Amino acid sequence: MALLVQKFGGTSVGTIERIEAVADKVITYRDQGHSMVIVVSAMSGETNRLAELAQQVDPKARGRELDVLLTTGEQVTIALLAMALEKRGYPARSYTGGQVKITTDSAHNKARIKSIDHERITTDLDAGRIVVVAGFQGVDEYDNITTLGRGGSDTTGVALAAALKADECQIFTDVDGVYTTDPRVEPEARRLETITFEEMLEMASLGSKVLQIRAVEFAQKYEVPLRVLSSFGEGEGTLITTEYGADKIMEQALISGIAFNRDEAQLTINGVSDTPGVAYRILGPISDANIEVDMILQNVSADGTTDFTFTVHRNDFETALSSLESTARELNAREVSGNNKIVKISIVGVGMRSHAGIASQMFEVLAKEGINILMISTSEIKISVVVDEKYLELGVRALHEGFELKQQP
Is residue 253 a part of any domain in this protein? Predict the structure, then answer.
């Protein structure tokens, strides 16, 4: 039988009743003869509650002590789930990240895993126990408690699967797989049976919230088969795996999915001198303010000046706009403008590699709906456009239909 690592998120263990349901689900797999390692998050809302407590004591709370506080949420869940399994007659053992031991670097609140000592887990599995591990956490080389950042339990699950050479890492969530787009926007969105790591990374980076990007990167690096399943129902879910072979590419749809991001804002500086280093002078202060830039567009005019447009997260809009206005004065720019009422819509698919005309088809679909494109960005397997936020749902639905992604009757 297989060695399975299963991860259950906060919603899946949000109440005692749901923890009991998770125990029942784990047992169904155990009864099939599988060896089981379970990774759990804190109960839904608990990490936020703990963070709010920290804010009440110190609004600038961060670093080591915040990690000590936040990791207690998962410690509660592992103990309760182990109790639920023991009550049902299935030997179980719970471990914090430090007990495993999951060693990380010392970057508190956003640590990265360096190594995993899985000896204790292997010993327990050999003894027939179900092992329950706290997600989201580890310890550095000095035994300080660290956390992996929001969504870090996915990374814990994948990292354990890699270290144990598990047959599959299964991520149980409140959805039953990866869909062609968000079903709340397009009711006819279809669950994908399989998707490549490459496509999933693009979907995650472009706004899909199903999996944490770092977890997908980890799974791809160590070739861990990754499956997304529902905590609240049955089904095969979606398998995330390596690149399709040539035979599969022939059958693969041109587009696997449509992602979107509502949290975009656009800034433009007009009429700056078209000289070497001007892009750095514009974006350097933005970077110094710890603001990530997403898409960039530069237009050069006949008079030797350039217009420079870029996008940032909507939460950073005011800070970025203030920085840009200061830069504009230094560069004697003609004008600075901003727009925080935009969204990014992206189509993703490895099928783009072997088919021409995908971009023109996308633009044609949007044009027919009267949707004006403000910016365009492309890579080998994705095309992203920025449009006014009022066109988000219309654009997603039109593209979903245009590329024939809806469920088959």
Answer: no
Number of domains in the chain: 2
pLDDT grade for 274, boundaries at 50, 70 and 90: confident
Contacts of 224 (CB under 8 A, 6+ apart): 158, 161, 162, 166, 168, 169, 218
Structure tokens at 101: 């031991």
C-alpha–C-alpha distance, residues 209 and 408, integer Å: 24
Q: What is the pLDDT of residue 243?
A: 61
Q: In the chain, count H helices and then E strands.
A: 14, 18
What number is the average pLDDT over the span 17-28?
97
DSSP, residue by residue, 177-235: S-BSS-TTT-TT--B-SEEEHHHHHHHHHTT--SS-HHHHHHHHHHT--EEEEESSS-S
* Domain residue limits at 361: 258-402
Instruction: Tell whether 19 and 157 lie within a shared domain.
Output: yes
Q: Looking at residue 250, what DSSP letter applies?
A: H
Per-residue pLDDT of 103-126, as tens digits, reads: 999 999 999 999 999 999 999 999
Give backbone dihedrals phi and psi of 290, rounded to 5 degrees, phi first: 60, 40
| pLDDT grade for 407, boundaries at 50, 70 and 90 | low
Rounded Cα gap, residues 403 and 44, in angstroms: 36
Question: φ and ψ at 385, to 5 degrees?
Answer: -130, 145
Strand order in the sheet with 137-139: 113-116, 102-104, 137-139, 145-147
Task: Give the helix ranges, DSSP H, for 265-342.
Answer: 278-288, 317-331
**pLDDT tens per residue, range 350-377:** 888 777 789 999 999 999 999 999 999 9
